[in-house]
Amino acid sequence: MTTDSLVPPPAPSTEPGAPAPMPKSRRRLIILIVIVAVILALIAGLFAWYLRTGKPITQIPILDAPIPPAYSTSIYDVQQPLGVAFDEQNDRLYVSQSSGDQSVLVFNSAGQPQGKLTPVTPKKKNHVPVYIAIDPTNSDVYVTDRAAAAIYVYDAAGNFVKEFKPNGIAKWAPLGITFDKNGDLYVTDVTDPHQSVVMLKTDGTVVRRMGESDGLSFPNGIAVRDDLSVFVTDSNNGRVMVYKSDGSSAGALPRGQGETALGLPRGAVFDDRGRFLVVDTVNDTVNVYKPDDATLATFSYSFGEEGQNDGQFLFPNGIATDTQGRVFVTDRQNNRVQVWSYR
């Protein structure tokens, strides 16, 4: 054995004045500090976004996961509610009840009663308020009354303003109703033989009719997208018809099978994230779609099921949303309005 094998290798040489290598423990500490700083910056950014927008974290634009809302609470003391609309500016939730005194009840977003919109046509024998829409330009409340063949208008304080009458239409049966972002009015007219969707100005001027040749059968819910395309639930045909901003037909959403099937679609709405929500009254669910230019809309998921417990429906009908991630659904046979939340 030689003595060379017992001699330790020489230490690595360094140039004069070169810094000593950083210890591994210190490098790990610096990396950990950087990671923590990045996480804290992300949390601070999310918190600042929440404070600025007031929206739930699940609505961050970069997140697009199809996560259904969760049941939150219910508003009771309503008799077989049909339509619902939410005026976020004045914190007013309007609910039409088809039984009892057949009025439109007013709540705040916490479900506390704020009064009612009283029927104004006692001389008319039949009276059933159905759907409700809020004029985005002045918060006037429009209520369709198919039995009375009328639309009644109230101001934000609950005072009766007028009966809305379309120019040049002598006979009509208004049912579904909504406004677009510009303040134009859309009403489904279920007068036979050619049921249709009528676009109007609030002074009664008729802009156009849509769907007269599509064989519509009791169209109910209307929802207008930001690009002014119009989605209409063609209830008795179990489909959703779509019309372009010029009124021409863009086709229909597929009826679907299994979980995507539409039985009797009623209320419909676009939420502030562009999701299209449709109430299916016989399947006791709400279907949620992601609209796109290629296929009109893609089914994402549904929520709700048949029953009387929290989160279950018995013949739901109307739907409304707000910018806080809440969804309001009239649960007709359970005599309540359910509130769901994307938070």
What does this structure look like?
The strands form seven sheets. The chain has a four-stranded antiparallel beta sheet with strand order 1-26-25-24, with no helix packed on it. It is built from one helix and 26 strands. It has two domains: 30-64; 66-341, Neuraminidase, CATH 2.120.10. It is elongated, with a radius of gyration of 28 Å. The protein is mainly beta and 343 residues long.
Brief overview:
This protein is mainly beta. 9% of the residues lie in helices and 40% in strands.
- CATH class group of the largest domain: Mainly Beta
CATH architecture classification of the largest domain? 6 Propeller
Rg (CA only) = 28 Å
Under CATH, the topology of the largest domain is which? Neuraminidase
Biggest sheet: strands, sense, closure? 4 strands, antiparallel
Strand content: 35-45%
Q: Which strand order spans the largest sheet, edge to edge or round the barrel? A: 1-26-25-24
Mean pLDDT: 89
State the CATH superfamily name of the largest domain. Answer: TolB, C-terminal domain
* Termini Cα gap: 76 Å
Counting structural domains, the number is 2
Q: What gross morphology would you assign?
A: elongated
Number of helices: 1
Amount of helix? under 10%
Structural class label? mainly beta
> From N to C, what is the helix and strand string?
HEEEEEEEEEEEEEEEEEEEEEEEEEE
Task: Tell me the number of strands.
Answer: 26
Model regions low in confidence, pLDDT < 50 over at least 5 residues: none
